[in-house]
Automatic annotation (TrEMBL):
Keywords: Cell membrane, Hydrogen ion transport, Ion channel, Ion transport, Membrane, Transmembrane, Transmembrane helix, Transport. One of its GO terms (cellular component) is plasma membrane. One of its GO terms (molecular function) is proton channel activity. Belongs to the otopetrin family. It holds the Pfam family Otopetrin. It comes from Phlebotomus papatasi. The keyword Manganese does not apply. InterPro entries: Otopetrin. It is a multi-pass membrane protein. It is found in: Cell membrane. This is Otopetrin. The lineage of its organism: Eukaryota, Metazoa, Ecdysozoa, Arthropoda, Hexapoda. Residues 1-27 are annotated as: Disordered. Its main location: membrane.
Length: 267
């Protein structure tokens, strides 16, 4: 009977042998590397805070009489101009920073993908809204009572340029990858991508809470008519809102995959 009793060392050895080795196939770990992103995140959060302040001022001023309502629209329009200039400049800077990354579009993925297709579809809504807004602002400038026509025209033209540049950037950066230890360490353009990611959230707030209303442009209501401008807004603005939301998703995918080197495990 005593021959079947194992010593403590034998028991520990059998336990170690019974454990399965942790191989790359059965050990699934999810990690997010946030290196080289803090300054872009700080800048994006600053944009969101300023946008929230702008929205609060807008809703407070719209509750007042006519001069303050016009001031509220002008305030949002100027905020749009600043946002489009800053984000457009950030897109150009990200282009320059990421131009040396490897463009690795595989043959089996020769299409543009579902995410990029949805982005292009949403871009069409932005174009529809911007084109009609430019027409309305142009004719509003010819009227004596057309307040904010010039500022609105500049804002919509900048929106057209900024969204076009951003879409081209996303379609290009979607297939970019780091190609060496140096790029993996420096992560060129990641801070700018982080900033664009958060800034698009700020513009999503602006489109959802303010520009989604047909009454935001009273000059357009008088030029196109109430029903026509309401239909234009309700058809195009949901796509424009989705564009900002989906741009945030696409930029996050770029942020997550572009600056990470895939390590091959040999069996």
């Amino acid at each position: 009977m005593w021959k079947k009793i194992k010593s403590q060392s034998d028991i520990n050895r059998s336990r170690r042998n019974s454990r399965k080795p942790q191989t790359p196939e059965n050990a699934h770990h999810f990690s997010v590397d946030c290196a080289r992103a803090h300054r872009g995140m700080f800048g994006g959060i600053l944009i969101i805070v300023l946008t929230i302040i702008c929205l609060i001022m807008y809703f407070v001023l719209t509750e007042q009489q006519h001069p303050y309502k016009a001031m509220a629209i002008l305030e949002v329009t100027i905020s749009e101009i600043i946002l489009y200039v800053v984000t457009g400049s950030a897109v150009v800077f990200a282009f320059l920073r990421m131009r040396d990354l490897k463009y690795s579009k595989k043959q089996e993925h020769s299409g543009i993908g579902l995410d990029c297709t949805l982005l292009l579809l949403a871009q069409s809504g932005v174009y529809i809204y911007v084109i009609f807004s430019i027409i309305g602002n142009f004719f509003a400038m010819a009227e004596e009572s057309g307040e904010g026509g010039l500022e609105g025209l500049i804002a919509e033209a900048l929106c057209l340029v900024e969204t076009s540049l951003q879409t081209i950037f996303i379609l290009n950066a979607w297939w970019r990858r780091c190609k060496g230890a140096q790029q993996n360490r420096t992560k060129p353009g990641r801070e700018t991508v982080t900033f664009l990611l958060v800034a698009n959230m700020a513009m999503w707030f602006l489109n959802t809470l303010v520009k989604n209303r047909a009454s935001f442009r009273p000059t357009h209501l008088s030029f196109f008519g109430v029903w026509a401008w309401t239909i234009i807004t309700h058809v195009s603005m949901p796509l424009a809102i989705f564009y900002r939301f989906h741009s945030t998703i696409c930029l996050f995918e770029i942020w997550k995959t572009t600056f990470k080197i895939k390590i091959e495990h040999n069996n």
